[in-house]
Each structure stands twice: as structure tokens, then as C-alpha cells.
Write a structure and sequence with these properties.
SnoaL-like; Nuclear Transport Factor 2, Chain: A; about 45% strand; alpha+beta; about 120 residues; six-stranded mixed beta sheet; single chain; NTF2-like_dom_sf
Length: about 120
Amino acid sequence: MPNTVTLSELRKAVEGNDAKALAAFYADDAELRVIDQDHPPSRPLVLKGKPAIRAMLDDVCSRAMKHHLDDGLMEGSHLAFAETCTYPDGVKVYMSAMLELADGKIRRQTNIQAWDH
């Protein structure tokens, strides 16, 4: 199946800053939840559908920062990974993600992010 998400393909897209490749991993009706300092667990940012997720990926991948997939694990219909992002000024963002997969695509994803101050 084309564009089936695997840990190695995800690593390549994340570290390559490739929004197009990342977006291809999502199901058309995918949902992405983000929990961070601006979006607490009771009010997460929720993006519904591939177009909304692609717009977020385009924004993130257009920033001058390096992305590194630190660690990951894929088991059955779930994939979890940790990512560190570093801006040119040294500010770091750490993200932990849990993904639910269906038919080789990301159906649901929850990101928990922490930023340097």
C-alpha cells in the first residue's frame, strides 16, 4: 500500500522536514490532538481531516528548525515516538506522540509538547 506509515519512513519524513510525505501518512478523516502550554488536556487543539493536518505540517516544516525522531515503537495498530526540535537560537521543543493506525494510515494522533522558555 503506498504511503503506509512505518517507523523508518516516518523518521525519514520527520528528519527531512517533508510536510508532503508526512501528510501522505494520514487518513482522509484523521484527527490530531495537541496538548501543550496553550492547549491544556481539557481544551486540546483538535485538527480534523487531512487538509487541516497538512496546513499545520506545512507551517511546522516551513520553520527554520531541525527535527530529530529520538525514539519510536510500532506495535500492531499503534505507533509511539518522541521527537526533539531545535530552533537556530537553541530553543528546543520536545514532543511525545501516540498514533492509532488503520489500513496503514494514521487515524488518530495525540501530541504532547513541551517548549523551552
